[in-house]
Write a structure and sequence with these properties.
The protein is α+β, with helices and mostly antiparallel strands. The protein has a domain of 32 residues. Helix content is 14%, strand content 12%. It contains 1 helix and 2 strands, in the order βαβ. The chain starts with 20 loop residues before the first strand and ends with a strand.
């Protein structure tokens, strides 16, 4: 399956905002997932607060 997407705007975020994001395939915060994973891309969502 081939797919193309047009991305219009990329918004830089502060590194502290990474803790509010979570990779869909992980239970860890995105900041930890980025360090531990060799994947080139991640699907992320805003982590639920407990």
């Amino acid at each position: 399956m081939n797919a193309w997407m047009k991305i219009k705007h990329l918004k830089p975020i502060d590194l502290t905002e990474l803790d509010a994001l979570q990779a869909v395939s992980s239970v860890l915060p995105l900041s930890e997932t980025l360090v531990r994973s060799s994947s080139g891309y991640f699907l992320v969502h805003e982590a639920e607060s407990f």
